[in-house]
Amino acid sequence: MQRAHVSAAQRAVLGLAMIAPAAASAVCDRLRDEQLDPPARHVLTAIRALVDENTPAEPVTVTGWLDMHGLLDDVGGRRTLEVLPAEAASIGAIDSLCRDLALAATWRDREHAAVAATAAASAQDEQLWAAALDSAEADTGATGLQVTSPHEWADEIYEHIAGGPGVPDDVIATPWPALNYGLFGGIWPSELVIITGYSNHGKTLVANDLAHHAGKAGRRVHMYLTEDHGIGRGARVLSRASGVPTWRIMERQLRPQDHEAIGRALMSLPYGKTPVAGRTAQEICAHIRRSKWDLAIVDHLHDLAYRDERELTAMVLAFRAEANRGRTAIVLCAQPNSSRATSDNRARLSAPMMHSIKGGGSVRDAANTVLTIHQEQEDDGTPTGDAKLRAIKTRTNRFPTIDVSLSSRFTSFAPDPHVEAA
Fold first, then answer.
1. For residue 330, what are the contacts with CB-CB under 8 A and spacing of at least 6?
2. pLDDT for 419 beyond 60
3. Structural domains of the chain, with CATH
4. How far apart are CA 151 and CA 401, in angstroms?
5. How many Å apart are CA 111 and CA 199, to the nearest integer?
6. Chain-centre distance for alpha carbon 417
7. What is the pLDDT of residues 276-328, one digit of tens each?
8. Given phi > 0 = left and psi -120 to 50 = alpha, else beta, which region is 397?
9. How far apart are the first and last CA of the chain?
10. How far apart are the C-alpha atoms of 283 and 238, rounded to whole Å?
11. Is 357 exposed, middle or buried, given 0-12, 13-18 or 19+ CB atoms closer than 10 A?
12. Side by side, which strands form the sheet with 221-225?
């Protein structure tokens, strides 16, 4: 890839895509191959193919792909690809660079269309003139976008209204009616939701309750777990599904009547799981894309592989882009920043707020909904089990706060679906 033939911006974007998996996914989402100059176009084609195959788009793999497809010499050989990472942009500049490249491609195509129109006018050729106008109207910046006319948009809105009272069937209700009210019925398709709370305050339990409730309602639900916790998580799932207390399952202290309930529950567990310790956001997004879940939950975000806040931001943006791309609602369990003590007691932690989410404003800004879970505490800081579940960011301008209590029977904050047994 000769430097004279490829702009510095194109080299900076491709170099970053080859060293940061989250950036590779973002570049593939924001740019089309034809928006780059021919040598760079081949490199982006290779990166896109590797991302789709869930293979890291590193210099060696990109080189191998181009060599296998007979394109390596067209981009300038191996040495050209080896030095690209040294020209990589910072990950924080990826959005603006991709936007600038797309805009440059738009004006380049408009320039070509203008030249064609001038030639058609000089020749007074109607066919050439019509072709030039078609080229101008195609407008590279709009190619591939789904354009909805006012009439088509009106039809979409009317179709929603004509569906009758109630929320659409694809909205995922939560176990808490007051939260559903605050979210216009629940979690909508393609939304990104963040749940945050301090360690031992229950963000994983809230995620479990969401997954259980959605799975029991017939949704396709999957959890991506950075910590599997062995049988413990499975015991909580089984307890909720069967009505048998968690402690009985963990300690294998089952009564005769428990076996039948457990047998029925094991036949229809509400969701599955995939361990993802050490995996990247890109790998998880690729799995979500292939699986087409209704609800995917990542527990939790800050245990995935990243080096600094910029990469953390890129991970969250990758999850947001994946949610927007399909119909899957994605929930991320996120750790807050270092806790702050309350004014009346140094051992007690204050409730997390929007600014508490670890990773800065770009992380919380990417979410459609942010939920916090915060338990009351003893004087020594021990959580009591009584908690407040808050929606502190929504798209509805409703911000419900719900009083919930931890059920020791099911290790859950959700309303008890079973009659307490003696």
1. 191, 192, 193, 288, 295, 296, 297, 298, 319, 320, 322, 323
2. no
3. 1-147 (1.10.860.10), 177-405 (3.40.50.300)
4. 39
5. 57
6. 30
7. 988 888 889 989 988 999 999 999 898 888 888 888 888 898 899 899 888 99
8. left
9. 75
10. 28
11. buried
12. 272-275, 221-225, 295-299, 329-334, 192-196, 369-377, 383-393, 401-405
**φ, ψ at 349 (rounded to 5°):** -95, 140
Contact 286, 325 (CB under 8 A): no
Single-letter amino acid, residue 126: E
Nearest to 194 by CA among 29, 373, 26, 374: 373
pTM: 0.64
Residue 286 burial (CB count, 10 A): 18
Helix-helix angle 8-17:38-52, to 10 degrees = 20
Helices and strands (DSSP H and E) totals, the chain: 16, 8
Mark out the alpha helices in 74-202 (DSSP H runs). 78-83, 94-123, 126-138, 150-161, 177-182
C-alpha to C-alpha distance for 281 and 283, rounded to whole angstroms = 5
Is the alpha carbon torsion for 122, 127, 131, 137 positive or negative? positive
Residue 161: strand, helix, or coil: helix
Q: Is 72 helix (H, G, I), strand (E, B) or coil?
A: coil
Integer Cα distance of 1 and 410 in angstroms:
61
Q: What is the DSSP string of 256-299?
A: HHHHHHHHHHHTT-S-EEEE-TT--HHHHHHHHHHHT-SEEEEE
Nearest partner of 142 among 115, 105, 114, 97, judged by Cα: 105
* 8 Å CB contact between 330 and 322: yes
Question: How far is 248 from 267, CA to CA, in rounded Å?
Answer: 19
Its sign, for the CA torsion 333, 337, 341, 347, is positive
The residue assigned the tokens 């924080």 is 92
Q: In sequence order, what are the beta bridge partners of 331?
A: 193, 297
Say how many C-beta atoms besides its own lie within 10 A of residue 245's C-beta: 21
For the chain, the farthest-separated pair of C-alpha atoms sits apart, in whole angstroms, at 94
Return the bridge partners of 334, or none: 196
pLDDT in tens, 124-162: 887 777 777 766 655 544 444 556 678 777 777 878 788
Q: Which amino acid is at 258?
A: D
